[in-house]
Amino acid sequence: MTRNNRVTTYHHDGMSSYTMDPRGGSGGGSISGYLLHRVKPHLPPWLGVAGAGLAGALGHERWANSAGAGVGLTLASVALTGTTWWVGRTTGKQRRLHSAITVAAGSAWLTAACLAGPTTGPIDDVYLMGGPGVALSWNVRMAMRRNDTDGAGEGSDKGLLEKVGLARAQIGTAKVEPNRVTAPVALEPGEQTNDDVTKALARIASALDLPKSAVRYTPDPDSERRGDLVIVPEDMLSEVVEWEGPSNLGGSIAEPLVIGRYDDGAELVMWLPGDPETGRNSTHLLIAGGTGSGKGDTALNVLTEILSRRDAIVWFSDPKAFQDFAPLRAGLDWDAEGGTQTEVMVAGVEAAIPARTRWLGAHSYRQWVPEAAEVQNDPEHTCRSDGRACGCPGMPFLVAWFEEAANTLRNLGDDTFTGIAQEARSAGISLVVSLQRPSYDQMSTSTRASLPSVIALGCDPRDEGFSLPETVIDAGAHPGAWGNRRPGYCYVVSPGIDEDRYPSPGRTRRFTIRAVPVMERLAAWAQHNGAHADPVTAGAVSGVAGRAYTGRTTDTDDSAPQPTTLRAVEEEDDMNHGGLLVDPEDSGIDPEEELPDAEEGDDAPIFGQTTGRKPSPAEARQLFAQALEEFEDAGEMVVGPKDFMDWCDRNNLSRPWVSERLKEAAMAGRLEATNTTGRWRIIPALTAA
């Protein structure tokens, strides 16, 4: 390992004991000291050979021709060899065998030298030839210890595993890539499991002096004792990369969305539609992260990629009035600012799902593919019974995005997205839900289980399990370690991404003030070149949303409603600075005319007043029908008794009377109950008819 022009030498225990500066000598600075240091690790075998020779000469002086000494030396030789074999059970097979043979040969020669003499017969020749051979065999083994692939791990890797409690594990040949090392690990059969490695990741990171996020373990799905240990020594995410534009302007939504990079420099990508050729499923996306974690920039990375594709439309709800997304608003097919508008959008998505599913099935698509967005000129994808090409307009991919979804869930109920999440994928719809804390009190378990993809940013350590699967956390992913200290750092779990990438941290690009003009140009491009809702989708949503849904408009479309981005600055002044100081509805009353005679019901209590005239049943139906038309014309498609307060005042009607009329309208098919008690969704007049 090389750092700061210093070379660290590792010994068999895996720890370094000496550091040399390549520009000079050893620790003392002399060449002789450096050479002595390089020789030291190879001296023990030679010292052992010399010691055995000296012991043989001294033993012969004392025990020459002694039968008792011969028995004792023989027993000691056998016992020492057996002990060596027993102690070596925790090492590799080759090392154990090599050690036992060395001890057996050395003790046998020593016994013979002590009894017969070191220079008797061939004893001295065996010593002169065998001794250096044994010493050199250990020198060769030591020189090759870093390339040892027998699984013993005599080098630094084995020493490292010993220190973290995995002494019997075996490490295979490591795959070295730029800033990434992947080493296969085989654990002791019957003694260790993959869980032992995941529990030791923090200790491995400590031994390597790396952050915990830099060490990951990917278990082999076919084995409980095999997997890959991944080490990323340098954090390449520390450098902030600003967003400069989409990666694939005019491409298909089926192509990868590039949203950042991994810590080893590879691109961080994901997909929303499925791919029947590769077996990738379509997906929904959860974006989760605490305050200050970079969730807004992450969402902008994903949204700009989607808007830059030619065959996708976006329906977007943001209760924060598009605080972060205003430059992109003109490129959206439908935008809502929360509350009633979002409630209508949810109903629109629910209505679009069966309509789009029927269209795809009628054109022989088992799931949405890019060809479905083109004009249907292929006889294999025709809805005609005679088999000829039908020429139907294509159906673009639909992304239904709910920003700050916790607000929507509180207002509409816990299971608002459950049905959408479970059914939308087959209709070429991806649901994107963004919120800070996807806990079970914020989102139902059924909805959470239906969101296969997640971008998990920094969070409270206690919330990690709400964002990421347990297996990914066990493999080393810990967004809780970042909190809000590293904005944009994230883990991405999504179909199409290799599973060994799941615990690899990435970082999304940052959006600054310099990105605003580029986003505005992207929105303008989407207005003129992006997809528009197909007739099937537009018809389905208009059937429940009425005029609340206008679709994406362009600057050259004079007949279309004005883009929603301009509505906020075109509010009319409520004050009338000229003309008669009377209400328009009273302008035709002659002040000199006598009041009409009292009619039946004039003294009945009404809302906001003590007395009032109760209309006849025919008048009541007509008044209420007009009220619903007024709300529909204004695009307010979800109403309740509180919305009629001003209307009641104008028409001298009570709130209980309105409640009864709402129930009657629901029975007549003009209204439909919503998930919120006391709230009704207006069914457009043409649809109701």
UniProtKB/TrEMBL annotation:
Alphabetical keyword list: ATP-binding, Nucleotide-binding
Residue span, FtsK domain: 266-466
Domain of life according to the entry: Bacteria
Residue ranges of the region described as Disordered: 1-24, 568-618
Residues holding ATP: 289-296
Bias (Acidic residues) ranges: 583-603
PANTHER family assigned: DNA TRANSLOCASE FTSK, SPORULATION PROTEIN RELATED
Stated name of the protein: FtsK domain-containing protein
Species whose genome carries this gene: Streptomyces rapamycinicus
